[in-house]
Design brief:
The chain has about 190 residues and is mainly beta. The chain is about 5% helix and about 40% strand. Strands 3, 4, 5, 6, 9 and 10 form a six-stranded antiparallel β-sheet that branches.
Amino acid sequence: MKSRLPIRTVFTPQLISNPSIKSIIPIGSWWEFEQYRKGKLIDRWEQKNVNTTEGLNHLLNVGFHGATAITPWYMGLFEDNYTPLIGDTYAIPGFTESSAYTEAARPEYVEAAATAKVITNSANKATFTINATKTIYGAFLCGGGTAPTTKGDAAGGGTLFAASKFATAKGVVSGDILMVVCSITLADV
C-alpha cells in the first residue's frame, strides 16, 4: 500500500519598503606611555581613550565638507582626577591642564602618514620633561585656534580631539620624562 504525504511549499513574496545598509566605521585612539626617571624606564602602559564629539565633527567636516584641516596638532597632560567625556571641548575640557614641564610649549603631535587604517606619532613620541612634583592623571590631543601651542590655553578656539585618563594616576618628580604616543585608527581598539 502506498501512502501519500501531503507536502506543499508556499512562497510568499514580501516587499521591503525601507531597505537599509548599515556600515559602522569605528574610530578609536590607542595611547602608549613611558615614564623615565634618571634615564631609566620605570613604567610603561597603554590604553584606550575618549574621542570627543568636537574632534569627530572636525574630522567629518574636513573629510567631507571642505573645512580647513588643523595642522599641526599638539599633546598635553592633565593633573586632576577627571574622566574625559565625549562632550568635552577645547574651551571646556573638564580637566586642568598641567604646565609642569620644561618645554616652552605643548609638544607637537608629529604623525607619519596613515597606513593600515592607523595614523600615529610612534616614530616621534611627544616628550614632557617634568619640572615639579605632581600627580598626572592623563593626556590629550588638541589643535587649531589662536594659541594651540600655549600651555593652559582654553580660550583660543581650538579643537580637543581626544583625551585619555590613566588607569592609575602617575606620580612624577622633577627630571622625570613622560613620552606619549597616540595612534588614531579606523578599526576597533
